[in-house]
Design brief:
The chain has 163 residues and is an alpha+beta fold. The protein has five helices and four strands, in the order ββααββααα. Strand 1 and strand 2 form a beta hairpin.
């Protein structure tokens, strides 16, 4: 085992073998370019086009919704109504409909609980990305991971969580 020591992070024991991208079942961006002429793909394409033409000739309409026009208008009106908030529940696939002021009040109440959340003076995402990059570079230099895996693990841009 190789020790990996970081600034203020203590020591972590790592395996003796170098970890690699493929060895972990992860793959970077592919450079694969399909051949210009593949008889199998061309045959498949011709068959699909023929089937689409048959459907078009039968004048079949594809119904993309299980709602009729009246129900779609009602759903659109609900979505546009700023007095209510419609959200998917965390579990069970249910839909929750609440008065918007009540919904915002619950969110602000939850966010203001110091036992759950702490207000930060600034967004730490960039500093976390820099620190993570240093850890990944150190692991690469020490032969714990290869360069391909290091490139895969490095974040290119962070994002802030949203409600």
């Amino acid at each position: 085992m190789k020790p990996l020591v970081g600034k203020g992070r203590g020591t972590v024991e790592m395996p003796d073998d170098t970890l690699s991208l493929g060895g972990l079942g992860l793959y970077g961006h592919s450079d694969f370019v399909p051949p210009e002429h593949d008889p199998v793909i061309e045959t498949f394409s011709k068959l699909v086009k023929a089937d689409l033409n048959k459907l078009r000739k039968r004048n079949l309409k594809v119904n993309r919704s299980n709602f009729n026009a009246s129900e779609r208008r009602e759903i659109r009106a609900l979505k546009e109504n700023k007095a209510i908030t419609i959200k998917q529940a965390d579990k069970g696939g249910a839909i929750v409909v609440m008065d918007t002021p009540q919904y915002r009040g619950k969110i602000l109440n939850h966010l203001s609980d110091p036992e759950v959340y702490e207000k930060l003076p600034l967004n730490p995402t960039q500093s976390f990305m820099v620190e993570l990059g240093e850890i990944i570079d150190e692991a690469c230099v020490n032969g714990i991971i290869d360069e391909k895996l290091a490139k895969y693990l490095k974040a290119t841009q962070g994002s802030i969580g949203r409600l």
